[in-house]
Structures are given as C-alpha cells and as structure tokens.
Amino acid sequence: MVFFLYSQGGVVYTLFMNISDTFLHIEEFLSQVPENKIPLISIVGATASGKSALAVKTAQEFNGEVISVDSRQIYTDLDIGTGKVTEEEMEGVVHWGLDLATPDQQYDMMQFKKYAEEKIDDIYNRGKIPVLCGGTGLWVDAICKNFEPKENTDKQKEIRNQLEKQYEEDPYSVWDKLHDLDTERASKICVQNKHHLIRSLEMVLQNPGQTVSDLQ
User: How much is the pTM?
Assistant: First the structure.
C-alpha cells in the first residue's frame, strides 16, 4: 500500500499493483500539493513484501530520501530477522531511522515521531521528497495522522509500579510471566534488559490475548 499525503492534512489511501501506475499517481499527487504543505509519500506493508525496494525506487525517481519507520530497525545489532535494508539494497539512496539506539536503551513511539518530523522538515527544506517506509503501523499513524497517545491511566501506572517492584524482588519471575503470555517476545529479551522486559509484559497485560508483535 502507498499513502500519498501532505503534512497536516489531505490524506489519500491508494493501492497499486505495479510500479509504473504507482509512479504516475505519485507524479500527479506531487503536482497538486499546496505550496504551504510538505508532500509525504508513505509505503507500508508486511516484512518481505517488497516495500523497501519500492521505497528506494520511489526515492530515486522523485529525488527523495527514505525514513524507515520500524520499531525494531531503530536498534543497532538487530539486523538479522528485522528485514533491515542493507547498504547494497539502498542503492545510494539516503536512509534515516536506522540504528538510533542500542537494544538496552529506551526509545518509544513519541521519541521516534519527533525524530521523523524533524527529518521530514530537513529533507523537504533541502529540496527533496520524504519517503516513509514502514514497518510498524502505529508509528506510521503517529507521523501521518499526528497520533498522540492518551495519558497513562491510574490502572496503567499501577501495573507498571507492580512490575517494577516484582522485578526488583525477582526479575526471573517477570520473564517467566512474559514467557507464559508471549513466548516469542520473551525469547528475544534477556532477564537483564529491565526496560524492554517490563514494557513488553505491560503491553500484553493491557491487551489480553494479543502479543507484542500483534500490537506493533
């Protein structure tokens, strides 16, 4: 799927089956963007769906730079299994949004939203077209629809405080609980990674029946 939109409004959703049709519609879209708006192209899809290659070709065709919008690709040393684009696959196109933090650092959606908005302005001010490539649907929405999360409720704060306390007393019990609810996620987090362990368990506790992957 390809989104065509301009900053702060004018969202159009379009689905095309081939590159030539997509480029024709992008060209038409760019010709109609108001002067006071920033044109933004967003290419979204599942892992291995070809979105990275399409993003590169789009950037080459329309003098753009790519911003990767993926909650896993922001981390260094997590290349395998995340579908992170390689330098060869970039084909000389500048990519942003990769390797922003180490796996033991906290980096959430709102931090990335701020980062992406700054890059979008910078790319456009240099006479280029920003092309988003994602990845993580909620993060794409945060940028494209100016999504703002609701403030933590008292219940959410209570859950976090309980998990913090439980981790201090017995960190392995927190990992075991996550493993019971989301085995796949637990297998990717070591017990010593307190932030990601607690955050992952918090997510599945607040969304019964769903895994972290479902929520990203």
Answer: 0.68
